[in-house]
Design a protein that fits this description.
The chain is α+β, with helices and mostly antiparallel strands. The chain contains three helices and two strands, in the order E-E-H-H-H. It has one domain (2-97). The chain has helices at residues 27-38, 47-85, 89-97; strands spanning 2-10, 13-20. A two-stranded antiparallel sheet has the order 1-2. Strand 1 (2-10) and strand 2 form a beta hairpin. The longest helix is centred in the last third of the chain and has 39 residues, at 47-85.
């Protein structure tokens, strides 16, 4: 379960705090946080521009999520390789299966 709080100290400054239960944030949550940081759409934008920007943001989310998942997979492969090199083949196999 994610929880989000928004703070606004000034009209042009916004802060978000996200928490999660039982571990870190999911790939989806991290990807959404990234895309939200990269792009925002004004609430006062004309509806056509807002629709186009929202569509682009959705596409960006798909790409960012793909590469976050790829990075996690590659990192896990690297850690497994290092564990095998250190003689911990059983631990490497358990980690690979997660």
């Amino acid at each position: 379960m994610d929880f989000e709080m928004k703070f606004s100290a000034m009209p042009f400054e916004g802060y978000k705090v996200k928490t999660s239960n039982n571990g870190g944030h999911s790939f989806d949550t991290v990807a959404q946080m990234c895309v939200d940081k990269l792009m925002s759409v004004s609430e006062t934008a004309p509806k056509e521009i807002k629709a186009q920007a929202d569509a682009f943001k959705s596409q960006m989310l798909t790409v960012v999520l793909h590469y976050i998942k790829m990075a996690a997979k590659e990192d896990r492969s690297t850690v497994c390789k290092k564990l095998r090199e250190a003689g911990h083949t059983d631990l490497a196999e358990q980690l690979r299966r997660l």
